[in-house]
Predict the 3D structure of the following.
Amino acid sequence: MDFQHNDKTKALLERVENFMDEHVYPAEPEFLRRMNEGGPIGSSQVLHDLQEKAKAEGLWNLFFHHGLHELNNVEFAPLCEAMSKVYWSQIVFNSMAPDTGNIETLEAFGTEAQKEQWMKPLLAGEISSAFAMTEPDVASSDATNIRLSIHRDGDEFVINGRKWWTSGVADPHCKLLIVLGRDADADPDAKHGKHTMLLVPKDSPGITVVRELSVFGYNEWPHGHGEVLFEDVRVPAEAVLLGKGRGFEVAQGRLGPGRIHYGMRCIGLAERALELMCRRVLERETFGAPIATRTVTLERIAESRIMIDQARLLVLNAAHLLDTVGVKGARKEVAMIKVAAPNMACQVIDWAIQAHGGAGLSADTPLAYYYSRARLMRIGDGPDEVHRNSIGKLELARYKKKG
Ligand SMILES: Cc1cc2nc3c(=O)[nH]c(=O)nc-3n(C[C@H](O)[C@H](O)[C@H](O)COP(=O)(O)OP(=O)(O)OC[C@H]3O[C@@H](n4cnc5c(N)ncnc54)[C@H](O)[C@@H]3O)c2cc1C
């Protein structure tokens, strides 16, 4: 596709791609082997070594607007796409959710002391973090349902409740949980201001990671998703983000850039799937001709190219709006890409799996794992339906009579 990025982005893209060729793709077979054996996907030592290399080469925290290269969302988009072609490599570049969103949240809403305590070590890759909003007992697509209890007791908050799908909590490096809860002493009839966001050290007494959750059976260690129990967990009053009752303001600010990263990652996954599909169908023959010559194959390849490029333009448009008018002004476009990109990636990866036959379902290629990634993104950070509802309402609002 011929969208022209600026020279700074092009130069960085070349460096990311070179790094991928030199260090990441060669490490991929080891990760696939682990998956084949049903073992954990990650290997902290391999990841750690690669992280040190990326840091040394200045390819670190690329997502962060105030990082070394000061990239905006449009500039980060092709870099995120390139690193997502090997999904776990985002960790290598310290550009992996939920740390990305958590760092941006701290940057936007944290006090200087909170930034010093949490954002600095996160940016240095010394610790990782998790974001705990979703709860097993309530439909969390509607965040107003969140009921983990936060009770003010003198100079402290006391937390009780249960979360799940807390991504990253199983990582031994995870030291911080950003937790959304409901104020126990809030007026139950109040329409707004009932939820609060807290910065909670993971090693606080009363926190138990009850179990890890797999995705399509994949064991996602070290980045595992957990169910977390909070029993009389105490944090000081200074642990509040932005202010008591202002949790949704923080959540909204957090999700804009986070959701657009989903889009960029899906495009990386789909590009890789299309590449693998093309290579495979050129080399395999059935009934006297390469699979690549079948009309159905050509149709799927063509459709994949069209869909990927469409999604990329949607990502860039949403990224441009985020950069120029901010989260509020880009609401519809961010929701659009949150729906379009994972659906596109699911379809393209599915075709690539089909083109590989049985191999596509095995862990000899990354495709099956990629499908699980793209599919989860139709639910994580809000299911498709909720985003479609928002898009529909914003569209209708253009035609509603004023006054
Ligand atoms: C791999 C993975 C990682 C995750 N990581 C995190 C994390 O780090 N932190 C965190 O807090 N959460 C995380 N989540 C949770 C995720 O954000 C929630 O699963 C999601 O928001 C949906 O909430 P729910 O599971 O409670 O589904 P529910 O709210 O119970 O909804 C179930 C289904 O109902 C339908 N539905 C809901 N609302 C509507 C509507 N308005 N119109 C039509 N249909 C509707 C949708 O099909 C939806 O999928 C993760 C989830 C996954 C799968």
Summary: The domain at 249-397 is CATH 1.20.140.10 (Butyryl-CoA Dehydrogenase, subunit A; domain 3). Residues 98, 131-134, 139-141, 165-167, 215, 225, 376, 379-383, 385-386, 389 surround flavin-adenine dinucleotide (CB under 6 Å). The longest helix spans residues 247-283.
